[in-house]
Every structure is written in structure tokens, then in C-alpha cells.
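hey all, quick one before standup. I had two proteins in the batch that finished overnight and I want to keep them in one place so we stop losing track of which output belongs to which input. First protein below, input sequence then C-alpha cells straight from the run.
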Amino acid sequence: MRLRRAALVVLSVVLLTAAGCSKGKKEAATTSTLAPTTAPTESTTTTVPLTKDSIVLAPDGLGAGLPFGTNSARTINLLIQALGTPEKNTPLPAGQACGATRRLTWANFQALVNEVVSSSGAGRAGFAGWFLGPAGTGALPFKTEKGITVGSTVAALKTAYGADYAQNRGEQGPGFTITLAKGIVIGQLDALTDAGKAKTIQAGNYCGPA
């Protein structure tokens, strides 16, 4: 009888041990099954292309798509994408006091970039300035966010910008200044009366006529 009881005790211990091992393996398998099987994906960003219609004459660039300071190569590529090959692509002489190394011209519109090379001189790197000249054949229809462009009257400028608009007579004749939170837009007028019209508009750096 003692031998039989001992055998039963040993058998019980073996069965319990086997059950515990089996349970551990089952839990381990379950844990493995719940583990992630795919790696997280990276987010991607897209670049909105610049178009002729999206260009806005602004004190800090040409709208949200092309602010001043944008890398020179990217600026040139975006403008070509929007306007085609420039009619002129002119390197600027070293030491010229405009903080730019290159001027690109399409009809009556100019863009200046500072490529930051040994001849660039002082000035902010990248997209440096824009200029819209007198309207003519093929003139580009660029406007400010309030609809002002070359040919707009003094009366229209006053209505659009109110106290932010000021005019004066300088060395080059009648001119105006629009002072905004993001910067300054300036230009020339053919007269200081309300019937006078804007002859040019510009912001940022400028190096004179092409």
C-alpha cells in the first residue's frame, strides 16, 4: 500500500509539471501571435507646384509658394516651371550693391537671386527680390493680394492700402511705399494726383533696369 501511494504521488507531480509546461508554451505562442507583424510607414510630403496664376506680388516674395530666401536653384526651377524659359538670364557684376548674383527676366517681370558665391557680396542667400515694370506686349498680369499692379491709379492704391500707403517725390520722380507687417512694397508713379498711375512695383532687392 505504501508503495502504491508513493507511486500515485510521483505520478501526480509529473502530471502537474507537464501541465505547467504545456500552459507556458501555449501562453508564449499566444504572446508571439499578438506581436506586431508590420513596420510603421513613414509620412510623405508633397510639393505644390508654382503656377502663373498662384504668383502674388508680396512684400516677402511671390506668395506662399515662393518667399524670399528660398534656395536659388529651387527659385529658378519654380519660376521656369510657372513661366517657362526666361528671356534673359543675366549674371550680375561682382560688387554691385544689390545683394544678388543673377537676374531672370520674363517680359516686364524680373526676379533676382543671390547664389552665395565668392562674388555675391552682402545680402540674403536665395530669392532676393522681384520687379514688375511698365506694361507692354506680353506683359505679365501679376498683382498684389489687393489687386494692385502696374497701371493701377493712385486712388486705387489709397483705397486698397489706406494708412499703409504713402507717396513722395524722390530723385527718380513721384513714388509710393506700402508698409505692411511682412515688409515693404515700393514703386514709381507718373503723377502724385489720384489719377496718377503706378509705373513700376517692386520688393526686396533690385539692381536697376535689365
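OK second protein, same deal, sequence then C-alpha cells:
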Amino acid sequence: MRREDRKVVALLGFLHGVVHANILAIPVFLNFAWRDDFHADPLTLGLLFALGFGLYGVGAVPFGFLADRRSPGPLLLLSALGIGGSMAAIALSSSVPVLAVSLGALGFSSAIYHPTGLAVISRRVAEQGRAMGWHGMGGSLGIAAGPAFVGVALSIGWSWRLVAGALILPAIAVASLLLARPLPHDAAGDRGDPVVSRRALFTVPFLLVLLVYMFAGFAYQGGLAFLPHFIGPGLFVLALACGAMGQVASGRLADRPRPERTLFALSLVGALLLLLLALFVSSSLSGAPFGGAAIVFGLVLFSLEPLQNTLVTREAPRPLRGSAFGFAFLSVFGIGSIGAVLAGWLLQQNQDAVLFLVLGLCMAASGTAALGVQRKTG
């Protein structure tokens, strides 16, 4: 990878990690702090998770449009500052409604990043699959580091408000880097007719890509929202950390021909792991068997991201990459947030095994949609 490309990927990977460190700390807060402090039942917790992640997806669409028309630097700076301000609001939240608004603000601020940052990589970096892998690893390290910090800090007796306040610091750090090292101007999108371009985006293959993201989003959010409840914060962090290795490996695979086949195969593996978790729950096999399967599931789940992003890059015209990633993340986080609500409802009904069964079927549907992209474009 070229030196200038490495610098761009490193900066974006850091911000990617900050985004995920904060948003993926939510399950730990939900299961080990807010549930007791706010006396919240599983459905309420699922709704709080869905609100934060839902706006994370919904906000990606308008910011995706802006990423095609504006320089990425100010948008990314706005994301970093918004995340810091939202974490401050979360730390000061005194009730469930106030917490809900603060989580919504966090989701909306975080929504700026993906369509903007991924559009920069898709336009600026030559080895896109490898870049997506390293960029994804940055996100996965944040995914592991954020929940790990929160879990350890809560376990040693820190107030959850102090922990949430400490998460402001990485956002301030990345904002400082963005001011000190602006992104190159050629990372901005081409300016064209937005009406014609947006219509041209919605081809049959791209709609299938959105289905890939949507079904994966159901499994992603339904699985992660309450996984700490089943395996504890330590194994939850380990499962997320394993995703970093999967990101790099699948990033290399994404540069090869027919990435849809790899995505299909990995999605089926993820589906089988979820079905295995359903069997373990139904037979009361918790502990090591369940935890081991959950860790492997974490590795597989995050391995899907570079491959999914490569599909968007291939199907979307270059000037519309920001909009394309906006719609993709609307599918995975906006519509996909239904998975967290469904998970909360099923857990409240004591239907743990049914939850993992449904999530496994969603993962299989995502992989099947990926094969459909291959057939339409092959």
C-alpha cells in the first residue's frame, strides 16, 4: 500500500475505532449498569439499544449525500466532536428519557463517519480490499477496547457516569488529529447532478446488496445487544477482539475475484454458529461450550464487513459512494435495529433459543442475497 494511502487509512482507522468503541460500549452499560440503575426490563433495554443504533443507520443517508458533495474533513470533525458531546450528555443523564435522547445523539453523530470515511477509502486508496481490512481492524480494536474499558472500570467500582465521561477523551484526540492533519482534497466526491445520480444508484444488484446488509444487521444487532448477558463482559470483549483478526484476513480475500462467494460461505458459518448457540441454550449447555461458540461467532461476524463494503464499492458509481454507503448503513443499523427490539422482546418471553434460531436464519438470508448479487453481475 502506498505511503500516502497508509496515512489516510491510519487516520480513518483511528476514528473508526473511536466510533465503534463508544457505540459498542452500549451493550455493557445496558447489561451491567443501566438495567439496575434505571430499573429497566429487557424490552426497554432493547429499545434503548435500537434507538442509538437506529439513528446510527438513519443518519447515514443524509450524511452520505453530503459526503458526495462536500469535503470529508469537516464532516469527520463534526462526527468526532458530536461523539464527545453525546458521551458527556450520556454521563449526565438522570432518567431513561434523557438517556434515550443522549443515545440518539450519539448514534446520529456516529452516523456521519461510515459513509464519509468509506467513501474516502473507495475513491482515494488503490488497494481497496486490503485498505478496508486494515480500516476494519481499527474499528474492531475500538469495538474491543471500548467495552473492555467499560467492563473493567465498572467491575472495579467506578461509577458508570465517570466511565462514560472518560470516553470523551478519545473523541477529543481524534478531533485534534483531524485539525492537525487534514485529509487530501482529492478524497472529496465528484459534483454531478444529484437527481440523476441517485436514480442510477438503485440497480437490481445494489438492491440485493442492501438486503445483504439488512439481514446481517438483524443478526448483528440482535446478537450483540444481549450477548454480554449470556457470556459476561470478559468473553464479550474477547469475542469482539477476535473480529480484528477476521477483518484483516477477509480484507485480503475481498481483493480476489468473486468476493460474494466468500461472503456467502462466511455468512453460512455465522448462521451455523448461531444455530449451535440456540442448541446450547435449549439444552442448558452454558459455560465453555457456549462461550467458545460465541467467540468464534464474533470472529466471523466482523469478518463480513470488508466483503460487504467491497460489494458497495463495486456496484456504486464513484461519485455516489457516500450515498451508497449511507443507504447500506441505513439497512444494517437503521432497519437492522429491529433485531435488538426483537431480541429484547424474545428474552422477556424467555425464548432464548428462539432468538438465536431467528438470528441464524437472518444470517443465512444475508449470505443468500450475496450469492444473488453474483448471479446478477456474473
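Flagging for whoever picks this up: The chain has a mean pLDDT of 87. Residues 3-377 form a domain with the Growth Hormone; Chain: A; fold (CATH 1.20.1250.20).
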